[in-house]
């Protein structure tokens, strides 16, 4: 009985195996491409950066990405913006705030940025791929989601 | 000014730091196509006579293994182990400090909630064997002289798994919606309420209550149906996961359990997506209400799609149409498990290691009770995003295949001959929708 089951299931297994091999192939060819786009993002503006550049003021200069964060009372911009970033590529946050506060960078381990009222610059480096949220506390607002590749 | 790394600050964020990158679109599409192709291949070429029968399936395990697994010593050992872990972590919860490095949080959200899935897949219904709620209820019963397993009343059959569905919803709401889910106080309160309900319920309805209403026990026992371990007339048998899955007993509320488990995991991806994040953060109220509504919508949506898809077929006169959703609900369990693996793999591996390290220092005083305090977390998995993405898509696709085969076998068992193939189509579409939806969320969130 198990033998017959196997013969009956063989096409299924084959199709699945073929599909997954295709996935694997895609993934492998995709990975250098991603790295390329990461390294090239230092020269040309990263795609989401250029899309949202007008809105949130994130752009890449030199070998880093810069984002401007504005705080007016309890309201923040940007609001949950996605920013692409390379592993070990510095992100410069320009914070324009009307009162002092703290941002949490939910990388592993977590990083914390204390800022004063007025304009200040802060640099973040993420050393591992993943999605890292930059969040303000009190009030709790997610400002940025960094897609680190 | 450079940022300062901080160890255990409180945040209203949930456990764990960085999350997985979205899977590449090529992989998501490849997975979806594979799911589609496999589904129709199964429909076209698979068997036409039901193969799985709980009465006959499975090979008896070797005698010594059956004796060992059924032994009183093992049962007591498992209960003692479960109680030891429970008391150790409860001490951290009660006397430990309210910080993210309190191992109570990691044990509850990662080792228990996520770890229950791989443990049950490998060794069967493990939570039932170590459950402190069950152990303490059994001790109560023993002290008060009640016959083992019995309560004051017979558990009403029509309640089925509904209490477990409610308990699971309470858990996922705490984990995914409640803003203070990483404060020790509220989580401790949740656990106390859970234990209280389990004690009262088991006093009233006996241990049957725990098997139907304890969210962790029900979840673990359902996932264990995908392991190779089963019992037939009390004898330990080895079954193929598909044959074992067929032995899930359909009870009222099973569709709701499945809906909450799958819907909540999908919601977890959805709540991190940019459009939803922007929407809830631009509202003037806190995000608790929109998140609660979305969690209900996802859970109810899965249950609704499953109900409609299983009922949209011709039926035999001896099986009422409204019985079908619960009779087919088992086939969604592998899809859930595949998606859970994809969703939680990094979190479990990396935050699980972190929790094992933290467990050495339950009171945040720098202790090293278990000798794990100096270990370092291995981040190999998140450093290899391509490997991770391929594993996730493979898990989702494999879960889908197992689910489709399970549904096919059930359909040819239950449906009248002329509806056996066409009757499967709505459910097949629903399953493809679940899988593709899951892949889409892994890609988009």
TrEMBL record, chain A:
Keyword terms of this UniProt record: Signal
Signal peptide: 1-24
Residue numbers spanned by region Disordered: 22-83
Domain of life: Bacteria
Biased composition (Low complexity): 30-70
Name of this chain's protein: Uncharacterized protein
Organism expressing this protein natively: Nocardioides pini
Taxonomic path: Bacteria, Bacillati, Actinomycetota, Actinomycetes, Propionibacteriales
TrEMBL record, chain B:
Tagged with keyword Plastid: no
Residues spanning the membrane: 27-47, 76-96, 108-130, 159-181, 187-211, 293-315, 327-345, 387-407, 427-444
Range of residues in the leader sequence: none
Keywords in alphabetical order: Membrane, Transmembrane, Transmembrane helix
Superkingdom of this protein's organism: Bacteria
Keyword Transmembrane helix annotated: yes
The name this protein goes by in its record: Fenitrothion hydrolase
Originating organism: Nocardioides pini
């Amino acid at each position: 009985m198990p033998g017959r089951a196997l013969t009956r299931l063989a096409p299924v297994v084959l199709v699945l195996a073929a599909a997954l091999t295709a996935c694997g192939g895609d993934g492998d060819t995709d990975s250098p491409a991603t790295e390329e786009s990461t390294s090239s993002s230092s020269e040309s503006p990263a795609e989401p950066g250029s899309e949202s550049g007008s809105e949130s003021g994130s752009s890449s200069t030199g070998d880093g990405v810069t984002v401007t964060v504005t705080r007016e009372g309890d309201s923040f911009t940007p609001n949950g913006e996605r920013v692409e970033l390379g592993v070990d590529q510095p992100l410069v946050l320009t914070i324009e705030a009307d009162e002092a506060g703290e941002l949490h960078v939910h990388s592993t381990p977590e990083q914390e940025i204390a800022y004063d009222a007025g304009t200040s610059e802060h640099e973040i480096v993420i050393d591992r791929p993943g999605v890292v949220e930059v969040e303000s506390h009190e009030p709790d607002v997610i400002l940025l989601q960094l897609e680190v590749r | 000014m450079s940022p300062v790394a901080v160890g255990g600050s409180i945040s209203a964020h949930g456990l764990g730091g960085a999350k997985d990158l979205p899977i590449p679109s090529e992989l998501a599409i490849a997975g979806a196509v594979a799911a589609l192709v496999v589904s129709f291949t199964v429909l076209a070429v698979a068997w036409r006579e039901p193969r799985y029968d709980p009465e006959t399936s499975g090979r008896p395990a070797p005698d010594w293994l059956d004796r060992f697994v059924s032994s009183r010593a093992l049962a007591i050992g498992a209960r003692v182990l479960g109680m030891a872990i429970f008391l150790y972590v409860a001490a951290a919860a009660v006397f430990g400090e309210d910080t993210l490095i309190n191992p109570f949080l990691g044990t509850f959200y990662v080792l228990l909630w996520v770890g229950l899935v791989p443990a049950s897949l490998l060794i069967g219904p493990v939570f039932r064997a170590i459950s402190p709620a069950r152990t303490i209820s059994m001790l109560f019963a023993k002290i008060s002289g009640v016959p083992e397993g019995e309560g004051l009343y017979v558990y009403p059959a029509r309640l089925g798994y509904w209490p477990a569905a409610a308990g699971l919803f309470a858990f996922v709401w705490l984990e995914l919606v409640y803003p203070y889910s990483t404060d020790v106080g509220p989580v401790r309160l949740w656990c106390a309420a859970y234990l209280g309900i389990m004690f009262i319920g088991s006093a009233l309805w006996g241990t049957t209550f725990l098997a139907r209403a304890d969210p962790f026990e029900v979840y673990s026992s359902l996932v264990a149906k995908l392991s190779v371990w089963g019992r037939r007339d009390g004898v330990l048998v080895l079954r193929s996961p598909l044959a074992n899955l067929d032995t899930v007993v359909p009870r009222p509320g099973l569709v709701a359990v499945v809906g909450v488990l799958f819907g909540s995991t999908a919601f977890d991806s959805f709540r991190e997506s940019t459009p939803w994040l922007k929407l809830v953060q631009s509202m003037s109220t806190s995000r608790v209400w929109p998140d609660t509504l979305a969690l209900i919508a996802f859970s109810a949506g899965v249950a609704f799609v499953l109900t409609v898809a299983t009922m949209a077929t011709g039926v035999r006169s001896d099986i009422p149409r409204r019985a079908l959703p619960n009779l087919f609900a088992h086939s969604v369990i592998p899809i859930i498990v595949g998606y859970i693996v994809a969703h939680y793999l990094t979190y479990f591996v990396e935050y699980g290691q972190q929790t094992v390290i933290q467990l050495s220092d339950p009171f945040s005083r720098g202790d090293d009770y278990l000798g794990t305090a100096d270990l370092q977390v291995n981040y190999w998995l998140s450093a290899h995003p391509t490997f991770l993405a391929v594993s996730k898509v493979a898990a989702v696709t494999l879960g889908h295949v197992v689910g489709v085969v399970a549904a096919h076998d059930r359909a040819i068992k239950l449906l009248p001959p002329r509806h056996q193939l066409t009757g499967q189509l709505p459910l097949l579409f629903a399953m493809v929708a679940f899988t593709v939806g899951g892949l889409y969320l892994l890609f988009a969130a």
